[in-house]
Amino acid sequence: MPVVRTFDSGQASFGRYQRALDDYLAMVTRWYREAGFAARFSMAALSPLPTLAVLLWLGAWLIWRDSLAFDHWLAVLLIGTGMAESMMPMIMLNHMVDKVKLSKVNLSVARIQQVMAIPAPSLPAPGQGQVPADASVRFDGVGFRYAEADAYALRDVSFSVPPGSVTALVGPSGAGKSTVARLIPRFWDVTAGRILVGGVDVRALQLLVETGTSAPA
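Below the sequence we write its predicted structure tokens.
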């Protein structure tokens, strides 16, 4: 998510993902629609009652024509209905597994759509963006907390990073190192103080446009 937000407006990456979801949903829906008739027909044809009716009628007709012995007809009647009845649980199990798979797919798609329907938080954009003079970074009395009720993750942080230099943020887990790094590209706005990039407050920088082209550096 940070990579997509930093280098992309989100439309290209999430657009490809949405198209892949739509294609997968269309494929699954088409497959179930095409296989639905075959599944229903096989369940109806192999149901014990239709099988018994067919064997009774056919056996009676063959016995009447003296083409089938009664004991043979009785054996076929028992074996045929038993075979059909034994195959039904397997067909029902396969159908149930397919329905479970489809329900899981629908549930996953619904959850993904719920997440993607959440409106993205927007930060106020400057009317006329400014261009930084260089790649220097300066924190000037920065304080930050994620929500008004939360404790400060950063408090009165000040330091300067000259352009072309390497600066290490050192501290224990939870000290705010990642927060400092994420405040520079303005994932959030600072609660107090200001962050300057090239002498320009990050809240006044010229933003990326929707086409993915960036402002001149």
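The longest helix spans residues 70-117.
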